[in-house]
Every structure is written in structure tokens, then in C-alpha cells.
Amino acid sequence: MKPRPAAVAGHTCLLIGLLDIATAVLPHVRATRIERIAPYVPGLADDIARAAALVSGLLLVLLARGLRRRKRRAWEAAVALLAVSAVIQGLRHHAFVAAAVSALLCAGLVVFRGEFRALGDPRGRLRALSNLVVLGTLSFGLGLLIVGVRAGDEAGRGISFTDRVQQVAYGLVGMSGPLTYASDRVGDAVHLSLLALGLVTAATTTYLVLRPVRLAPADGSDRLRALLDREGRRDSLGYFALRGDKSVLFSPTGKAAIGYRVVSGVALAGGDPIGDPEAWPGAIKEFLGQCDRHAWTPAVMGCSELGGQVWIREGGLRALELGDEAIVDCASFTLAGRSMRNVRQMVHRIERAGYSCRTRYVRDLADVEKQRLREAAAAWRGSATERGFSMALGRFGDPADGDCVVVTAHQKDADGDEQVRALLHFVPWGDDGLSLDLMRRDRTAEPGLNELLIVAALRDAPGLGITRVSLNFAVFRAALARGERLGAGPVLRVWRALLVFVSRWFQIESLYKFNAKFRPEWQPRFVVYPAARDLPRIALACLQAEAFVVLPRPAERLRQWARRPLTRRRAAGSAHRSAALTPPTGGGR
């Protein structure tokens, strides 16, 4: 597969679309042959030409990205629109070159039609049609309202409702209707408002037709668990492939698998492929083939050095060091020594305050306690959205996750009852390791509780047959560590200063310093990507997957609201009104 024809077609389509828009809206390019013959042709020929140029230009701009991604539907629409564009440009005496380019690109698309084979969303056409009907009706209604509000500014008499309907219908596609206004300012405002409604309808409909495929996560958990039982000790991130929002692709032999999730057209795989490294190439080829069929951009978050080498060799991708994973050897861990003095003092202080810890398998917890811990973890969450993707399981207490380990911190209240104040949740890393999944604590508890929990987990680990524990992932850890050393260069110091500044929102530096307290062994992790131009898209998709960036989804919110029982909606409305009347008292996030 050669991506060059698709890329050239996409960029050329973008330029032609921008030229069409310019010829439709810029005053100094409106002298056309069609204007010369307009007095002899009945109807609004000039308006039709301008409207067609504007609409086709906008659609070509929207289709450009689909062509670069080799979308079949984008190819079909672009061929038709380029033919229209060539005719429109040919009617303008200054645009014969543009018309020739449009015609050549249209012919080129036909010649290279085999390059544009990426599948679209099977539900996209139905959703686009629904959007066109619903949003088009809404836009038409709003247009009638706009025209009706300005009825007092209309010039002339005997204007009927039919005239206003025609004005709206013409205005939505950028044409001038039968109505005129006493003020040019009012006329321009009405025209631009109607045109904006029409463009929003066209743009959203085109997006739904070309939107990336969103496949439902495939249920391969049984096969994947069997594979993890055999090969799960190779990668500390392997168990996280069992997240409910991930799909799984297996190699042809079934000896390797890749868990991934599609976010904004980017197929994000987490960690190394699961299974025998000799079978990794087969799984990687299956994954890249799936990406090619659906025009997804492949990317891998947090793979090891060995995994990065295989991805580069088999997929022709590139790698960039993302950060380091903190791994603690349980047998050698101790609180003794000068380097551990701060942790030792903090742990002893918390223990003297009456805190105690328990380390147990999830399968040993009663259902009532699981529910209580689940509710406590949700209440202590610092954001409204559950964060995590590459190093988060996204659930707690599932019967299938009995081998997970939970560490809880307890404190007795005034009545002598024990209250849970914090918890850690670990997932299995083979049969002799644990990987940190969840770390939550009561915001009103004393500082240092997380340190106490980790120390308790490391102390109790040998009794569970655990020899190694993977803690949090520190992004750009090497840059932070080297940038503060004596003799660091100006570039490294500037890079570290930028990371420290960004840490105000993403806790990059604080997470690194917290992990460093336990003197771990640092294992580098990498992000794998196709090309440098894809990094911004991949970075945004990663932030979305980790829930650091949450894009609004009004349609999904509306469906969720509609599925809620009426009594719950009424109760939520009452609670919202009560909260609005109650002055804020402060507190944690």
C-alpha cells in the first residue's frame, strides 16, 4: 500500500476547496462570465454559482482528511464534487488553471481508486441521514424564526408566508431569496445567519458519513485470561488488556494478542503484545491490518524496549521514550538507611496516629465489603471521570478478578469502630508480581497515608508469594532527573522547566518524586507511532483515553438522561435546586 497518492489527493483537495470558498466570498474575484449573461438568463444564476462554489468548497475541505486516510466514502463524494468544482471554476475567466487541476485530480482519483478502500462506519449513513433530517428541520425552523423576527425590516408589501419559506430555503444554501430589507446591515445579518445554519447542517452530516469506525469491544476475555496465565509475567501492563472498553486481536496461531481501544480515529494499544514473543509479529500484523482496513492511526502507549523493537521491525513504525515505570524488588526493600529516612518517619507517624493496614486477595472479601470499598473509592475520586487506560483496570471487585490484591488502611473512630480511610488495588503480574491499578484515600485523612499503604503492600508481598511490585508510571522521568543535576545543559533545563510548569495540571513531577521515595528500579517505556505528523493526534487521543481531556458528547448525554427513570430525574432536579440555594462550604475536589 502506497499512502502517497492518498496524501497528494487530500492536500490538493484541500487547496481546491479553499479556492472555491475564496471565489464565493471574496468580492474582488466575483467578476465572472456567468454575471455577464445573468441579465439574459431567467432565475438567480449568479447566486446559484456562488452557493455551489461555497458548498462544494466547504465539502472538499471536509473531505480532504478523509482522502488522506483513504476513506472510500470520501473518494466517492470527492469525485462528484470535483467534477462540479471543475465546471464552476471553468465558468470564471480567471480560474481555468483551477478548473484543470480539479479535472486532473478527479481523473487521478478514478485512476487510483484502489488506494481508497478504508471502510466507513456501517452506521454512519443512517446517522448522517437522521442528522440531515433532524438538524435540517431544526435549522429551517430557526431560519423561519430569524426571518419572522425581522419582518418589520422587510422592504415592499404583500409579502406572504411562502416568500419567507423560500427566503429560508435559499438562504440555507447561500443563495439570495425573494425578500429584500430596508437596511443592508439587516439583510446581511439574515443572510449570514441562514448560511451558518446551512453550513452547520452540511458539516455535521459530512462528518457522520466519514467518521471513524467505532467497533464494539470484542469479548475475548476467556482466551486472553488463558494467555495471561501462561505468559502474563512478561509485562506488568498485560492484565490491563482485560479492561471492558478494550478490544482484543489474536495472532493467527493464538499464541499472542493485542488489546486496543479506538479513540478519535487512533487505535491505541497498551503495553507489549501478550504472549510468546515469537508470535508477536503475527499479532502486530493483524493489528496493523485492522488499522489499514478502517483508516485508523496505529499507536502504542507504554511498550517496553523489546516490544518497541518488534513494533519498529514488523510495522515500520517509530518510537519515542515516554517515561519510566517504577518497579520495586520486594526482597530487597527496607525502610532502613539514610535514603529512606523521610518515608520511615512518615510511616511511623501515621502508625502512631492509630492507622493499621490489611492486605488481602479480592476473592477473600465479602460482597458487602467489596461494595463498601467500591463506593468509598468512587467518593474519594478527585475528578468526575474515572481516569486511566494503559495502567488502569477500570473496575473493582469483579468475581473474575479474584487474584487482584487490595490493601486497605483503617482508623478507629470515637465509638471504636474501624473506618476505611484509603486503599490500594493491584492486578496480577504473572504469578509472582503485582501492578498498581488504583490508589485512593480520604481527602480528610492525614498526609502520608499512601506511603503507609505502599510500605504495607511491600512488607506483606513475600507472604503472598510476590517478589516484585510495579508502582506508578513516571512520564518523562529521565528529563526531570537529568535536568536538575549539576552540569545539565540549557536545552535540558528548559525542557525540565516546561515539565514542571505542566505538572501544575498533570502531576508529572509530583508522581516522579513520589515513586522515587521507594528507590525503585526504573524501566523505560515508549510510545510507538507511524510518523511525526501523527504525534499531535496521538497525544490528544492518549489524553482522551486517560480522561485528562473529556470532549462533550451532547447526544450521548441526552440518551443517558432519557434512560434514567423519571423519579431519579426529578430527584436530581430537586437536589440541584437545593444545592443552588445552599452556600458553598468548601472542601476537597
Give a verbal description of the structure:
The chain has 589 residues and is an alpha+beta fold. Helices cover 50% and strands 15% of the residues. It has helices spanning 4-25, 33-37, 45-68, 72-90, 96-111, 124-149, 161-172, 184-210, 221-231, 280-294, 305-315, 341-352, 367-380, 449-460, 477-483, 490-506, 508-516, 535-545, 554-563, 566-581, and strands at residues 247-250, 256-263, 266-270, 274-275, 297-303, 318-329, 355-361, 405-412, 418-428, 433-441, 468-475, 521-529. Strands 1, 2, 3, 4, 5, 6, 7, 8, 9, 10, 11 and 12 form a 12-stranded mixed sheet that branches. Strand 10 (433-441), helix 14 and strand 11 (468-475) form a beta-alpha-beta unit. Helix 3 packs antiparallel against helix 4 (72-90) and helix 15 packs across helix 16 (490-506). The protein is elongated, with a radius of gyration of 30 Å.
